[in-house]
Amino acid sequence: MAKVIRVNMTDRTVTVEPVPEQYAALGGRALTSRVVYDEVPANCHPLGPFNKIVIAPGVLAGTTAPSSGRISVGGKSPLTGGIKESNAGTPVAQKLGRLQVKMIVVEGQAEDGAYLLKLDKDGAALLPADDLKGKLTREINKDLFAKYGKKAGIMTIGVAGDFKMSNGGICFNDTEGRASRYAGRGGLGAVLGSKGLKAMVVDDEGSPGVEIKDKELFKQGQKKIVDAIRSHPVTKPDGALNTYGTAVLVNILNEAGGYPTRNFSTGQFEGAAQTGGEAILEAVKERHGGMTGHGCHPGCIIRCSNVYPNPDGSEFTSCIEYESTWALGANCGIANLDIIAKLVDQCNEIGLDTIEAGVTIGVAMDAGVIPFSDGEGAIRLMEEIRQGTPLGRILGNGAWFTGKAYGLTRIPVVKRQGMPAYEPRAVKGIGVTYITSPMGADHTAGYTIAPEILAVGGKADPLSPEGKVELSRAFQAATAFIDTTGYCLFTAFPVLDIPSGMEGMVETVNSVLGTTWTTNDVGALGLETLKLEWRFNKNAGFSKEDDRPPEYMRYEKLPPHNQVFDISDEELDKIWAAFEA
Amino acid sequence: MAKVIRVNMTDRTVTVEPVPEQYAALGGRALTSRVVYDEVPANCHPLGPFNKIVIAPGVLAGTTAPSSGRISVGGKSPLTGGIKESNAGTPVAQKLGRLQVKMIVVEGQAEDGAYLLKLDKDGAALLPADDLKGKLTREINKDLFAKYGKKAGIMTIGVAGDFKMSNGGICFNDTEGRASRYAGRGGLGAVLGSKGLKAMVVDDEGSPGVEIKDKELFKQGQKKIVDAIRSHPVTKPDGALNTYGTAVLVNILNEAGGYPTRNFSTGQFEGAAQTGGEAILEAVKERHGGMTGHGCHPGCIIRCSNVYPNPDGSEFTSCIEYESTWALGANCGIANLDIIAKLVDQCNEIGLDTIEAGVTIGVAMDAGVIPFSDGEGAIRLMEEIRQGTPLGRILGNGAWFTGKAYGLTRIPVVKRQGMPAYEPRAVKGIGVTYITSPMGADHTAGYTIAPEILAVGGKADPLSPEGKVELSRAFQAATAFIDTTGYCLFTAFPVLDIPSGMEGMVETVNSVLGTTWTTNDVGALGLETLKLEWRFNKNAGFSKEDDRPPEYMRYEKLPPHNQVFDISDEELDKIWAAFEA
Description:
- Two copies of one chain form a homodimer.
- Chain A has 24 helices and 17 strands.
- With 581 residues, chain A is an alpha+beta fold.
- Chain A folds into three domains: 3-202, 4-Layer Sandwich (Aldehyde Ferredoxin Oxidoreductase,  A, domain 1); 241-423, Aldehyde Ferredoxin Oxidoreductase Protein, subunit A, domain 2; 424-497 and 518-581, Orthogonal Bundle (Aldehyde Ferredoxin Oxidoreductase Protein, subunit A, domain 3), CATH 1.10.599.
- In chain A, the strands form four sheets. Chain A has a six-stranded mixed beta sheet with strand order 2-1-6-3-4-5, sandwiched between helices. A six-stranded mixed beta sheet of chain A has the order 8-7-12-9-10-11, sandwiched between helices. Chain A has a three-stranded antiparallel beta sheet with strand order 13-14-15.
- The longest helix of chain A is centred in the C-terminal third of the chain and has 18 residues, at 468-485.
- Chain A is globular, with a radius of gyration of 22 Å.
- At the A-B interface, helix 5, helix 15 and helix 16 of A face helix 5, helix 15 and helix 16 of B.
């Protein structure tokens, strides 16, 4: 029987409850956002006793559906001040699914000390974990695997979370146990830090497995989505993602003039070729070590991840994604993959979101803290964060905070969350997503790059403002659904282009939940979640003025297209007008 | 003829314009708030090119009306993100009044460099002032008096403004030329810093003087308000304010259990007696130096200011007000007047609001940066701000920013502005003012301490939540009017208790403006200004959630009365309900 684990950090009690009826057909983001909406006072202090953290595997996590090992973490974000759902691909999602844990709700606050939540088939327990505080995530994983066995699933926060920094993320292990998969965005690691929950260990030995209500339907849907993933050029074996990883996008976005460089001051980076997916593959081949085509969780058939090697071929770190090579590369003017890998590794160890970290360093460089392109300087800045020095406190609280500390006006954030690797002035649909998503600037919330750049799911001119509000709304709605399923967002590529793929997605979900949704319901289901998220933010004090681009993007022209962000406020306000009612 | 000086920092032009008809009957805060509402896009970046600074002397500044040398500075605040009016008592107000300068509007942004605005009877000019950058305000005043003569009036920002810190204030000289009178709250010095306007020199030699439309009425009103001030126990010669200064309140508030101590963790300070007004007077007498009964501008007949002496009797600094001895004393657990004087002096030199600085240090102490009561440590923290180190960048951006840097939940701010020296849990009307004022936490915005503690203008139980919304609204409205007149807010004590005093205030205003207001109009006139301020904030994205106490004050009981802040959100929302229409 599916269950809810409720962890009260104030009195350190753990209860196991049945899943309330109204949550039965939810999972992943739909569930975390719903529970945060229902249980967290919208105007509470994100680091105070009334915030909660909700951890929910996607509906299909733990089944044999392909690439479905995603886990969602929700709460009120100390970075944005609004609702947050941040997700990751990890075996932990699958283990929770197999244990039939629908969600874990962490509430209250321990007065002091650090604790570990241990979950297995027999139940859940809170154990003291003061020994883990202050450690790097790699050390924590090492300790916990030694204690609980190699097959454990581990969630932890790093020192950034201990320090309650707004860029403190939540780290999950990958297939081989690396502390490398992050629910990174929005500082939910700081919320766990404020509660005193340092880590979670999940042991699924002897677990009952995911209950599938209609096994035939599951099989049918599974085959459809597997076929779609395996036949689409972006996701197929030896396709773009599998071969080069997500960083295949570097040269594509650079070519399009939408690759934000040196704190979003231009849309092209002279070091793109040295830092893109092709260069990562070359390093793997030349150094005879590391790998591309790596999967973050078992059962992934896209496998876009990688392990980057040292010059001697030994393993260095995982993973250099598109976002991380951009954030810590082009955005800082750094054209050296080994330095970028070092910075990624530091983020992993310290417990930081690589996007926010890179946007922050870019802002710090623009403020003159260190010069652009100073890779060794950037490594030192990360070390400041690890030590929690005053400069580290500034940087660890993210790009907006850093810009404010230094009196900057060029701070590329929305709702105080740093913008990802697509320039909104050059790719306007993604700009609408950044600006209007309840999550703050987030590319995954409505990835219009698909039609605007990749001609997937239709085709749209990236420079044109026309129709982008509608485009972004449709993508945000579909995404909110996908984020509930457990499927990786990259399944959207085949699913958008291949109708039977979308059928397979919905059928597998129906087979587990017992629902009878059709592909036509996807948008409406996603909008239900978005509406709750939007309402939470409104209750938290957000207004239309929070759905705005940074002021300077309205008047500073971005080379090479010399474009400003020219979708009007009135147009932007149309996106959620239906929610006002 | 009254005029408007418009300074465009982008192209460094200065124009002199006639006063638009609709601004003719305004002055001080009514004028700055109106122009900010009319001309500044509410959602602009406070440090960007679209914000403006409006400087306006009060209506009576420059006349012989008593205690009327106040000047208002308005703009969008980088501290609160909302509208801000901050005022000071200074000869500069009077000189501008006599030059018939109704207001100065500073707009645009210089690309680089620092500039000085020179005003005299012949007009206005912008001059390069790079030599002033990075200097302490005391050095700036010394340089400028040497260059422009001892009779000049000087406005300047300190390094805090150069650094664009959210606690950068605007410094005006006092009667003897000290750099000691501040439009301190809300970081408007940072806005001047962002524009490149470092200083202003006002020379009123040969000025026409304030045009008084009805000289007989002026005389009549002047006599009434002089008589009222001279007869009220709080403001009369050798009365409480004149003898002890504003710090006469220290023991009174401490006795009432409403004197916030060690970052608002208790309402009584064991070092109150050593740091109050009586102790200041004793130091002046024992050391045979310094003075109490000092006036911040010529013509003040209250004279609540002081000059604090060194142990050898020589002059140290001016002035140790109630707010500063509290902020840098009790709130930091520091019970030593000489250390407090040093901290006040550092604020003056660096260009900081003493309230925000003290609340910030209290927060930093609570976060463990230095221990409570560590006076030498506090002096070092101020030095960090002066140098603009990373820690200085944190502290210079105020209490909210510092609390956020260290992940604290006990941050005594509203709209991110630090709370002044009255505990809202022990004196609930002032709590309503803090929470609902468009200015952020500000005692001067609606000083209900008068009836709640001093039995002036009626009598109210400080611990009771009853009727406090109405009380605060009435005080906020009256204050918004007084802040336009040029009269010091302390004239409110006699004016509230003595009907002819209020008549005198209104008559003197009428005599200059040609208006025919009665004492019954005061509230409505004040509400007009408050409504514009509230609307500006709403347009800037503020919601009811910004009119809330810090969460912890709802559940952490304050000794010795063990009270929480128990006026409900619904009750608070009534205060400006009429503005919603």
